[in-house]
Amino acid sequence: MKFSYPKKERLCSKILIERLFNDGKVIYEFPLKVLWLESELTENVPVQSILNVSKRRFKRAVKRNLLKRRMREAFRLNNHEFYETLQTRNLQIAIMILYNNNTILEYSVIEAGMKNILNKIMLKIGPKNEISSSKS
Known about the structure:
The chain is α+β, with helices and mostly antiparallel strands. The protein is about 40% helix and about 20% strand. The chain has a single domain (about 10-125), classed as Ribosomal Protein S5, domain 2 (2-Layer Sandwich). It contains four helices and four strands, in the order αβββααβα. It has a four-stranded mixed beta sheet, with helices on both faces. About 25% of the residues are buried.
């Protein structure tokens, strides 16, 4: 199992971020909101992601950083099955995870939301497209 979150898995492409906002699919799962999009990524990884906490909701950087650390840890510890699914289906997705609550919640609540989001995305991607080689 892989429990890391290296630099190459972070989404930095401004063009891809703009496409994510314009064409991305949205999933809400308390306390998170996710924008995701199947696309060709710049790196050879199954997922590139961004974690975001609104400055409008949390004025203090300390609070924003605390929430981003909790989100990053929940993503890091629960993404291995998600990554395996994407690799077996030969897919790459860009994902933006937004904290969507006005209070600082416990890690366990954030982790539960993260697990549910990753499962919902796996369901939306659907079963593996198998090529049938039947001859008539």
